Amino acid sequence: FAGYISQVLKNYTDHACDGEYVSLRCPHRTTISIQSSFYGRIVPSHQMCPSRYPYSYATLIKEDVACSVGTSLQKMLDECQDRRSCRFLVNSRLFGADPCPGTGKYLIVWYKCRPNEYKSKVACEDDKLRLSCKKSMVIAIYSAVFGRTQGGSLECPYQTLGMPRIECQSATALQLMIKRCHGKRRCSIYASTYEFGDPCYPGIRKHLNVIYTC
């Protein structure tokens, strides 16, 4: 279980040069969640993905190291988002018009593995948040936010007239929820500044939002 949760929470990175296959894969009961993507070249070929052209030809063509396409993220979402695994050959034709003909390019993808089935629970400030799983199952925390988000929370209407619409979040909420609830069948915690500290201005009402799976 510890290995499973560490894989779920990990940020993965994969890359492939032109003419190579990129292959993304997630553990059982999770799917790919693309975070970011880059296709092009921003470092010289002696640092990454050496030129496939003969050396004499490569010296005639000046390598472009400020080359990228704006379609790589959408292409990765189309190919891989919400799948357990995906694999395809990297080349410029996948991404539309070639931004720098004659320059060898590469794809870098950043992704996470998201549980297939997950639940969301919210507790308003100073209320108790309780999580529980059925017998023989344990809690795996995916994300935790304590503070104030731009949209607020429908479950926690704020009586803060005149307060600015700001976003403020605790940097330690996820680690604390993992420590308190990781691997347990049930757990509880108060959505309070005593537990999480106060990431906001005094007087701003906060909430705790936890996404987890069993």
TrEMBL record:
Signal peptide: none annotated. It holds the Pfam family SUEL_Lectin. Residues 16-114, 123-214 form the SUEL-type lectin domain. Gene3D superfamilies: 2.60.120.740. GO terms for molecular function: carbohydrate binding. Keywords: Lectin, Repeat. This is EVA1C protein. It comes from Podilymbus podiceps. The gene is Eva1c_2.
